[in-house]
């Protein structure tokens, strides 16, 4: 399409107002038609991407290295070259939580592997901590279930004979230790059964252990119906269902077999990290309200304090993202080059120290009060924010368990 250099005599196709430029001053519609060749759409796409990239290069370094500067630019009306505060905060929030989710999966997976290796090696049976025959029975069943799952997984993958022999030796050791503990408790030795499921119930006053593979819930993991009189019936039913979900997830996490624990952990973690962005959207306006209360004499509008809150949280999420990435890189590189662990550990420490310093300097520059008053208000606001954040994370954890 040929570019228009003069708009004399041309009217807007939408409102028929005479045009004075590429966009109508009355309704804002562009003079350019959306009916264009495919190459024109590709050119527009590249232009949009490059424009966004240019704003990223202007926004992110400014946000990280110049405390308060980006907020003051917005207050001064210079906004075109920067990403909007809410969009910046939301994108960094999603990126940081996604990276945290990956890091948590890696950490939890390695913890499970270490726990599994400890059980396979038979280094510690811990039956001496069991006070009743029922607890010994429960402990042995859980350990044997993990060994059986590891044996089955090994048979499907590598089929390592040495590993299978080690698992068999460990199983025999666990049975011997459990039998010895039963004898010490004055109970018959029933731990020599050929399978974990064949262990008969030893006489004990303790309640029998719930079976991880069982489809029914034990009494300890059954939710009593919620009956709040001033709530309608469907609300009570919904609360009962959510409570049962919490108990089911806790049962799988604490007493399930390895497959159940891994599935429950992944389910809960996915739900928790899925709830965090939504709960943060409630926390940020509350933080802006705190700024409005503490700086009421500065005559800042609530929307100005909201921009401060958005930029503050954007910086927090950016720092959290960088700290998590540094930790993940350290985990991957340290086995191959030990010096990278020290270097990336120093980077993480520097980022953690820069986080409160940045927020303090930002608060000083935006509200322009003396250092003494700024530090006092920073500590009070930080204390209130800590409890708000604790409540928010707890709420996200409960919501994650309730799905």
From TrEMBL:
Domain of life: Bacteria
Keyword Cytoplasm: no
Keywords in alphabetical order: Membrane, Transmembrane, Transmembrane helix
Transmembrane in keyword set: yes
Disordered: annotated segments: 197-220
Pfam families (UniProt xref): DUF3667
InterPro entries: DUF3667
Membrane spanning stretches: 276-297, 309-333, 339-357, 378-402
Biased composition (Low complexity): 197-214
Name under which the protein is recorded: DUF3667 domain-containing protein
Lineage: Bacteria, Pseudomonadati, Pseudomonadota, Gammaproteobacteria, Lysobacterales
């Amino acid at each position: 399409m040929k570019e228009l250099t003069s708009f004399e005599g041309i009217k807007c196709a939408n409102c028929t107002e005479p045009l004075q430029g590429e966009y109508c001053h009355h309704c804002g519609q562009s003079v350019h038609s959306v009916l264009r060749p495919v190459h024109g759409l590709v050119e527009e796409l590249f232009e949009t991407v490059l424009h966004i990239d240019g704003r990223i290069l202007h926004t992110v370094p400014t946000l990280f290295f110049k405390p308060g500067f980006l907020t003051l630019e917005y207050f001064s009306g210079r906004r075109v070259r920067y990403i909007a505060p809410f969009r910046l905060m939301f994108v960094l929030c999603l990126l940081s939580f996604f990276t945290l989710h990956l890091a948590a999966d890696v950490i939890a997976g390695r913890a499970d592997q270490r726990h599994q290796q400890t059980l396979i090696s038979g280094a510690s049976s811990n039956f001496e901590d069991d006070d009743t025959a029922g607890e010994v029975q429960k402990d042995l069943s859980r350990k044997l279930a993990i060994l059986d799952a590891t044996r089955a997984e090994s048979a499907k993958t590598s089929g390592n004979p040495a590993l299978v022999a080690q698992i068999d030796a460990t199983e025999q050791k666990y049975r011997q230790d459990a039998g010895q503990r039963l004898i010490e408790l004055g109970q018959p030795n029933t731990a020599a059964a050929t399978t974990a499921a064949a262990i008969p119930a030893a006489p004990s006053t303790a309640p029998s252990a719930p079976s991880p593979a069982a489809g029914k819930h034990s009494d300890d993991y059954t939710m009593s119906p919620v009956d709040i009189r001033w709530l309608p019936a469907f609300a009570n039913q919904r609360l009962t269902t959510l409570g049962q979900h919490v108990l089911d997830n806790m049962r799988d996490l604490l007493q399930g077999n390895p497959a159940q624990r891994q599935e429950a952990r992944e389910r809960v973690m996915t739900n928790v990290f899925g709830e965090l962005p939504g709960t943060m959207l409630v926390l940020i306006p509350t933080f802006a309200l705190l700024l409005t209360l503490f700086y009421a004499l500065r005559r800042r509008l609530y929307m100005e304090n909201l921009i401060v809150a958005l930029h503050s949280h954007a910086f927090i999420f950016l720092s959290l993202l960088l700290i998590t990435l540094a930790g993940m890189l350290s985990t991957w590189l340290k086995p191959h080059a030990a010096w990278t662990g020290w270097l990336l550990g120093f980077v993480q420490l520097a980022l953690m120290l820069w986080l409160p310093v940045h927020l303090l300097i930002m608060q000083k520059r935006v509200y322009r009060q003396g250092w003494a008053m700024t530090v006092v208000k920073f500590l009070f606001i930080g204390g209130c924010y800590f409890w708000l954040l604790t409540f928010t994370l707890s709420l996200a954890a409960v919501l994650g368990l309730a799905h």
